[in-house]
Amino acid sequence: MQRSDERGIALLLTLLVLTFMVALILEFDAEARREYRDAAAFRDNFKATVLARAAVQAARGVLQQDFLKDKQSGVS
């Protein structure tokens, strides 16, 4: 009879270890997904900042060219 009890305890311990491992894997997966989402948000924010700065520089260039053209043609 003692042999059956040992099997039951071994089964319970195995299930407990498996449950713990599944919980650990799920938490790791959730953390990896959060980090991926955060990295994508950082990338998108960086791209938007660079594009905005480039647009400002392009607008400055157009305005400077327009100003110089007006200055050369005598338009005030």
Query: How many individual helices?
Result: 1
Q: SSE order, as H and E?
A: H
Distance between the termini: 107 Å
Helix/strand structural class? mainly alpha
The main sheet comes to:
none
The number of distinct β-strands equals 0
Range of strand content? under 5%
Whole-angstrom Rg: 33 Å
Which stretches are low in confidence, meaning pLDDT under 50 for 5 or more residues running? none
Average of pLDDT:
94
Q: Helix coverage percent of residues? A: over 70%
> What is the overall silhouette?
rod-shaped
List the helices and strands and how they pair.
Elements: H1 2-73
Please characterize this protein's 3D structure.
There is one protein chain. This protein is rod-shaped. The model has no long low-confidence stretch (mean pLDDT 94). It has 76 residues and is mainly α. Helices cover 95% and strands 0% of the residues. It contains 1 helix and no strands. The longest helix is centred in the middle third of the chain and has 72 residues.
Which key features would you list for this structure?
76 residues; 95% helix; mainly alpha; single chain
In short:
With 76 residues, the chain is mainly α. It contains 1 helix and no strands.
